[in-house]
Amino acid sequence: MKRKITIFGATGSIGQNTIDLIRRAPDDYDVVALTGGRNIAQLASDAKALRAEIAVTAYDDCLADLKQALAGTGIEAASGEQALEDAATRPADWIMSAIVGAAGLKPGLCALEQGSTLALANKESLVTAGPLLMETARRNSATVLPVDSEHSAVFQALVGEDIAAVERIIITASGGAFRDWPLEKLSKATLAQASNHPNWDMGQRITIDSASMFNKSLELIETKEFFGVTPDQIETVIHPESLIHALVGFRDGALMAHIGPPDMRHAIGFALHWPDRKHLPVERLDLARIGALTFRAPEDARYPALRLARNVMETGGLSGAAFNAAKERALDGFIAGEIGFLQMAQVVDATLDKLFAEQSLINNEISLDNVLQTDHLARVRADEIIRAR
Ligand code: NDP
What we know:
By secondary structure, this protein is of the alpha/beta class. It has 16 helices and 11 strands. NADPH dihydro-nicotinamide-adenine-dinucleotide phosphate (NDP) binds at residues 9-15, 36-39, 58, 98-100, 103, 121-124, 148, 200, 202-203, 205-206, 264. NADPH dihydro-nicotinamide-adenine-dinucleotide phosphate binds next to helix 1, helix 6 and helix 9.
């Protein structure tokens, strides 16, 4: 029987890798909904090729173009936040959550409320509202499968294991574009330099977040929320080759590493076929040719984002929502040329300080309303801090 599939963020890097896998086995899937943002040509072309029921753009001002591109095909076209949520409630067996940023939270929650299986690339959902997301999944007997390569690696290392036997989880980091730069040069890093990842081919935002290590910071919080471990059980190590994606250390001293090529189609394919394993079109590693794998500790001075993530994990509550929103605003500021590379972490730090001083981010319940309110407030404060510079 064909599986019904929906892809949120279909026009992005993860979305396109997902579509690549689906197109290799078209008889196995019925595509329900594809969603995108401003890349209407890609969205319409994929919707036609995959014969989707509906294509949704997040932006109302793109709807006319989408309708025109789909005219005569019988494929529905829709736009806006509500249309994204409606798309998530259309019955589907498997839904890819690959919108970038906090905008991915609501469609993901809607999908879980239907009891769907959610393949979660959108790490921001777990960072901003991890307890809410996981509780919604539990309440509706829905399944959340990790797609981030590190979390997929941990998930795979834990198959057949008892989480109680886990001593530590080690998340590897490539170190990003500036891992070998002299520290004093970092303040001069340009947008083009930060947008060039040494190992992975990803969307621009996550690539810049890799250079600043904000991506790894989000992943540390994601690890805590997804696997339910404590902050002191989570470690990170720089591994420039990006071949070991994560390691799980057990109480008997064993360390299980997941090793594979830096190709997101592995983690996406694992989630797509879970609990089976099927053939995937990814490179088979030649270990003798690779020769050596190297590791080093991350330097605090180079990666202040890691310290901020530790504070967020210790604080809990709504601090993840504030952290992510401040980071997104700071990233927009860097992309727009409002602030320099190093100032991103300073803006996030100052935003969190301000919010802590103003109100409690700790004890507020993690409801959708509170998360959205905190997200909004953190963006306003980060914006004020950026403008005051
Ligand atoms: P991209 O920027 O490549 O794609 C983002 C997708 O989201 C696009 O389809 C984009 O549409 C859409 N989008 C952008 N803004 C909005 C919005 N406000 N509302 C609805 N849709 C929107 O991102 P990636 O594919 O790189 O990343 C997606 C998610 O997966 C992120 O959370 C990222 O952290 C995570 N991830 C990515 C990895 C990777 O290898 N790329 C690895 C692990 C996790 P359009 O382009 O049409 O405007």
